[in-house]
Amino acid sequence: MVEPESPGTTISDAEWLANSVAHALRNPLFAALLKAEMLLRSTDSPEARALYGSLKRMEDFIEEMLLFGRPVDLEPRTVELGPFLHRLAEVYTKGERLEPAEVEVHVEESGLVVEWDPEAVRVSLERILDNAIQQTPPPHRVRLLGTASGEDRVDITVADRGPGIDPALVEHVFDPFFPQHEGRAGLGLSTARKLIRASGGEVHLESTPGRGTTVTVVLPRRMPS
């Protein structure tokens, strides 16, 4: 992926804005983080830990803005869907990304092989899973389903049993900077949709208040070259 230097036809205004703001903030934040880390090492006080934690969260925001703002450069290669989804689920069951969650994986066709950019799809599904797990109370049970649809399409579904989304807000959840959770940048689902669309696919969301949310990623078996 390459970082854009100025607005153009390949990126939206929101992408250019996110990229520009993130670049402007990244260097001063890095300097502040170094000072906060030195302070934490010397004092280890609650105040120092709180300051360092706040700056690290801001760093996460900036990295998400940079990811959203970059144009997509795909590198497809052959991937077996089952192991790919199981590796992704393992990140969450081990608590390597968020607090540990129960991610139940089902792949309906054994040995299903696709030709995707695995990094682009992984990043997209991580953003969708993050949202599902954060919406679901402990033990954060989420289903991850891979299904072949015909000879040229694969559906990947993430389903949770969280509180669901207000019907009035469903059409906005993929909008840039629409906050899914308090204290987050509101770019996770926007980034996911951007990467999936660049991969020749689409993302659909259905939600019923009180019954949970289902997000379906539809991808061609072979990404466009």
Explain this structure to me?
The protein has 225 residues and is α+β, with helices and mostly antiparallel strands. The chain folds into 2 domains: 13-69; 77-220, Histidine kinase-like ATPase, C-terminal domain (Heat Shock Protein 90). It has helices spanning 13-43, 46-69, 81-93, 118-135, 167-170, 188-198; strands at residues 77-80, 102-107, 113-116, 141-148, 153-160, 202-208, 212-220. A 5-stranded mixed β-sheet has the order 2-4-5-7-6, covered by helices on one side. A hairpin with a 3-residue loop joins β6 (202-208) and β7. α4 (118-135) runs antiparallel to α6. The longest helix is centred in the first third of the chain and has 31 residues, at 13-43. The relative contact order is 0.14.
CATH architecture annotation name of the largest domain: 2-Layer Sandwich
Number of DSSP helical runs: 6
- Can you tell me the residue ranges where pLDDT is under 50 for at least 5 consecutive residues? 1-10
Tally of strands:
7
Would you list the SSEs in sequence order as H and E? HHEHEEHEEHHEE
Ends apart, CA distance between termini: 15 Å
CATH homologous superfamily placement of the largest domain: Histidine kinase-like ATPase, C-terminal domain
The main sheet orders its strands as 2-4-5-7-6
Shape: globular
Sheet with the most strands, sense and barrel status: 5 strands, mixed
Q: Estimate the mean pLDDT confidence.
A: 89
Quickly name the level 1 CATH class of the largest domain.
Alpha Beta
Helix content: 40-55%
Determine Rg (CA atoms, Å).
19 Å
Query: Structural class, from secondary structure content?
Result: alpha+beta
Number of domains: 2
CATH fold type of the largest domain: Heat Shock Protein 90
Strand content: 15-25%
